[in-house]
Amino acid sequence: MTQIAHLEDRALLHIAGAEATHFLQNLITCDVERLEPGQATFGALLTPQGKVLFDFFVLRGEAGFTLETADTHRSELAKRLAFYKLRADVTIEPADGTVHALWGGSGPGFADPRLAALGNRAYGQVLTATDEVSAYHAHRVRLGVPISGADFALGDAFPHEASMDQFGGAGIDFTKGCYVGQEVVSRMQHRGTARSRFVGLSAQSDLPVAGTEITAGDRTIGKMGSSHGTRGLALVRLDRAKTALNDAVQVQAGTVAVTMSLPDYVTYGWPQ
Prior knowledge:
single chain; globular
């Protein structure tokens, strides 16, 4: 049975104009030139220092692109995009429409470009929600997919730390040309210098709130992200986490003993 949640904390922007494709292609981390109408990808606008300033879905339509982002950041994102627009033939406007997540069966919309198992996104559809948003986030946490706000702060994380290099070409496209922050991201990719990564956590009791320190003995190895009951995510230093595993040191989220595991979809592993 398909489960449906109305994501009321998400909002839409419409990007149109004769130069819209060229404008976005040279600005954000994902490849929009290859998209056909009805296809979507996931990407970000970075700081010049290579950190995630805004992240969003990008859906190509017959007349431009729809960007889905957090509703609290929509106006900020529009202003930042306008800053780069200069004299380009591009319009940037808020768009009406609901955002729904669908998982566990078939349904309208487009497949989540990050990970097919997440399900679909649907914009502006007349749908009846069958589940609370918390049920969708429990599904996401079980799959090990981090999101901004709940798992990492915008302006504070590199794309690799936000798992954006793990989405099969969505998130970051390493074959496209230059974009804001591209040199830093490319250097991190080729040198393999992403030391902090997301791991899954499981426990025998409910996990603490996001931001709680993850420790191994007397050493801090990371911080809690989002959780749902006894399952959660944490951004940890993989080398320190692996040392704790090798030495059989109990890892804790605050006072809660946890077990760490790598999400099934990721290509990174524990350091050798």
